[in-house]
Records
---
Amino acid sequence: MFKKFGKFLIYFFTQFGLATEMIKDSVFWFFKSKLEISQTLQQILKIGVESVPVILMTGLFVGMVLALQAGNTMQNILSEPLYIGLLVGFSLVRELGPVLTAFVIAGRAGAAVTAEIGTMRVTEQIDALSTLGTNPIRYLVIPRLIAFMVSIPILTLFSDIMGIFGGYVVSVEALGVPSHTYISDITTYLGIDDLMHGLIKAISFAFAIGVICCYKGLNTRNGAEGVGKSTTGAVVISMVIILVIDYFLTAILHAFGV
Amino acid sequence: MPLVYSMIKIENLKKHFGSKHILNGVNLEIKDGEVTTIIGGSGTGKSTLIKCIIRLLEPDGGKIIVDGQDITHLNNEFELAKLRKNFGYLFQEGALFDSLTVGENVTFGLKYLTDTPKSDYAKIAREKLALVGLKNIENLRPSELSGGMKKRVSLARVLATNPKVILYDEPTSGLDPIMSEIISQLILDLKHKLGVTSVVITHDMKSAFEISDTLAMLYEGKMQLVASKEEFRRTQNPYVKQFIAGSAIGPIQMKISD
Ligand SMILES: Nc1ncnc2c1ncn2[C@@H]1O[C@H](COP(=O)(O)OP(=O)(O)O)[C@@H](O)[C@H]1O
Ligand SMILES: [Mg+2]
């Protein structure tokens, strides 16, 4: 039992070390060489632009369900649906917008990144890049890291806006909250620091997803079966790490008053 | 006999994966401007050996000297890139980039390894594809090609950068007899017209005897015999005799269970 746990710890820290190595290489190549602009734009298109519809949909319904839950709870406690805008706005912008956006992107684009890089690894395309004079980190990892870090914060904003709109529709149409009450709840209480709180989270999640998914892809072994394993692994690890980072960032940001 | 310069010198080379010792003291000299052929059963480590030469793998022991430079543990990315500039590597399964067209695949190395202006790319792609018997396929994707065609496109990609040393991993496997002969002739042409140094892994004994200046047989981690083709034909070495004859009876016992 202890032996197994020890083995797991060794495995975990080895992987962590190797992933850190990849981050180091990425930083090195980012400053040492010209950015692959067309690759980067292509990845922003695939990871960001193509994810817009699903993000709008999830954002909308999360906002709606938040308003419904908050409304029903307030109705039960205070016999009146008060502070709905406030509750919807805070939960979305500080917490659910960044987290759910990161989850959706990890599942949608992160999986695709790992599968693509993993397939390239097992079919020796990564080795071919090296023999043709291109560093795989420079050509594959950096464009994807940038694409995640540009896309996720912007998608988070989209998700926030859709969510607040969804909350508005439910509050006004279903719960009978006056429209100006909902809006003034949000404009009075929600500040720029809440937005920053959410965006710092979004960028951190994006970095984590990019590193995990590229790393898992680059370290794929054992053919098609290995690609499947890496891909599910990358998504699961990304989701767990997102929640872990979320907790600690919330604590840290709160301590700094953001 | 004139003294021929050793382009690549391999001394007591060792490589293992986990507990599997694949190369166990390989010695081989590859002479400038000659064709050296490596034969040996599947899984004996032929690919592993030539991957060590361009340092896609790092040896565990011994030495590799390329053009006077010890590259055994060369790990500086820029030094490695300089080394690879002179090399071409034909991958066993082609390793074409799935996401690019045939034309983009063929010219991929030009951007990173040469100063060729972009305006010449189309012409180079056409020329190199013609050398391997292909025409008008620049706009297809690798997934639209047969196995043999992929192999030949991959060879065109190697030829595009005009390397001084080419490492071929089974260049004629999967090709029909006529196409195999064309590729064998091409390897000889490159030697005679451009003085290219070649290392060819092959199972095709007809091609091996046609193109080689030197043959080398790898068995159980070591070279059984390194000699001219005349000596290979006359040898009494039972391992080599059995392999050339393709006989199931002899000292080499294939492990069917593998
Ligand atoms: N990256 C690797 N990790 C683990 N084992 C490997 C790796 N590459 C090759 N091998 C093993 O090394 C042996 C030799 O492989 P290879 O050099 O491809 O043989 P050959 O080209 O002669 O058929 C095989 O048993 C193969 O399974
Ligand atoms: Mg092989």
---
Amino acid sequence: MEPPAGQHRPHAPPPSLWPVGFAVGIAVLLTGVILGWVVVAIGALLTAIFGFLWVRDVTGGLRTVPDVEPERREVAPPAAPIRADEGGAGMVASSESEIERFPRSKFLEGATLGLGAAIGGVVTAPVLGFAVLPAFRGGEHEEVDVGAVDDFPEKEWMITTFRLDPDLGDVTARTAYVRNNGMLDGRPSFTIVSNRCVHLGCPVQPNGPAEDKGTQFDNKGRPNQVIRVPTKPAGFGCPCHGGQYDTEGNPTAGPPVRALDRFEFSIRGGRLFIGKPYSVGGVRGEAADAVIRRYDHVLPGVHVEGPSALMYPLEPPR
Amino acid sequence: MPRAKSARRQQIERAVLYPLDWLEERSGLIGGVKYFIFRKVPQDIGWPQTLGSATLTAFIVQAVTGAILAMYYKPHPETAYESIRYITNDLTLGWLVRGMHRWGASVFIILMFFHMARVFLYGAYKYPRELNWIIGVLLLALGMFEGFTGYLLPWDQTSYWASVVGININGTAPFLGPFLAQFLQGGAEIGADTISRFYALHMLLLPGALFALIGLHLYLVIRLGVTSPPWSPEAAGRDRAEVAPTTNGRAGLVRPGSRGGLTRTGVRK
Ligand code: HEM
Ligand code: FES
């Protein structure tokens, strides 16, 4: 059946297989981020070639010059002047030169749109800033007192739960595995490993027995701010996706992408204070002799070493 | 054979029609609603084409039950879990409304996928409906984001750690992922700001955006008409059936059959 006159035919582009190659190229490229640079290069090459072919296909119609005469518009000859005291004088047909001037209607149109945009911008900018910026400021916490150094027996692990900000309460509770390594060159040494899995942030558990009850103590006049439970782990394991770590926090199995984060610490007046967290690429050696590859604190799942680390060039401010 | 109407019947009819005429004269709304309800659709559509309306129904159920839950829910780390417990165990019918909202959320997402599968398998995304497919993709993304932000709100162990994992999955996206994650949790750590932020997104921003986009989506559905199935004997681009011009906005709405009416008119051959 012929479509009746004036009826639009669907003018979809003809089928093309190039997008399939393009998609395969991108998939190879992304796989390369895990497998290595050669695969990345192959993927990029495929993407570029098929992308080019695809674009050439799609724009084929645009690049040929159409066989149609350009439309012309005749300019009417200027109307004879009308005397000012006759009817219709206010509505002289505009001549071309007058159109090129900047008539009042155009100015009003621009002014309305421009003013509207300016008002919109003045309202939107602070609102957007308010929605976004606070998330990137004020992330620092004071050091937290977790007890006397003598409460941490040498070579023993303590599951230590504390509040980052006592004013905000339970929602700021964090847990670290703390081990007193004894003295190193006359100064006390501690291993303080965060329990946040560096796969996606679940709480890792000690692989080994933990005592039922711990000791609790108050801080800054608030009850139960710190809880310590002795444990004897052979490593740490994550309940969410099975990530496994040794006692220094090195990943031994599963999806984690680096070693467990650690906390800085300081000792004042015989008490242990937990400070800022930092991220760890890996640890060689053990306890007081450990050599730690230290990085700024980043989110779980973010690579700090190897080609994958290139995907995280910027760190958000805190 | 038309029968003469009794005087009483005519009286009742006039009484019913008066407010409708009043509204039609001042707003044209009756005509608009009629246009929407009695618009032509292809002859050979069936149940699969109702999936969009089913999704819409699920969305409306979510909006209503959600608004009622918001009357009792308290978005703060110290109170959220307790208020959910109170809604579920103590409030009359609270368990029901919460259950509808919780299960309805899954129904909404599942129906969206079924509807999308229908559109895909029927090729209904093709010219001139590409834009409606794109709006649909935005609806899908916003709908899933709605589910993600809602999941945190009960503030129990499952929802807390699932949200930690979900936020950190966003954080692993290349380049801007860490910024996105920090924006989502409202700070360097997940905390009190996270729950109120998720609540505002879940309650206000995302439903508002969904409402607006659904409106656009339906506008395009009505403007472009529903696609015939690929196996339809009708050729694409055929002539449209003549539509009898309506002189009176209300005609056919309360008196089906007088003009247009409830019969499904096929395309003339
Ligand atoms: C909030 C979610 C959504 C609602 C409430 C909704 C609603 C609807 C309704 C009522 C229709 C017309 C009847 C029908 O075909 O079922 C429709 C059509 C359509 N929808 Fe959706 N939809 C939603 C999500 C989506 C998604 C996720 C997609 C695809 C990515 C999509 C793409 C389309 C397209 C292309 C049509 C036109 C189909 C045709 O003309 O045959 N929609 N939608
Ligand atoms: S969060 Fe620990 S293995 Fe995934």
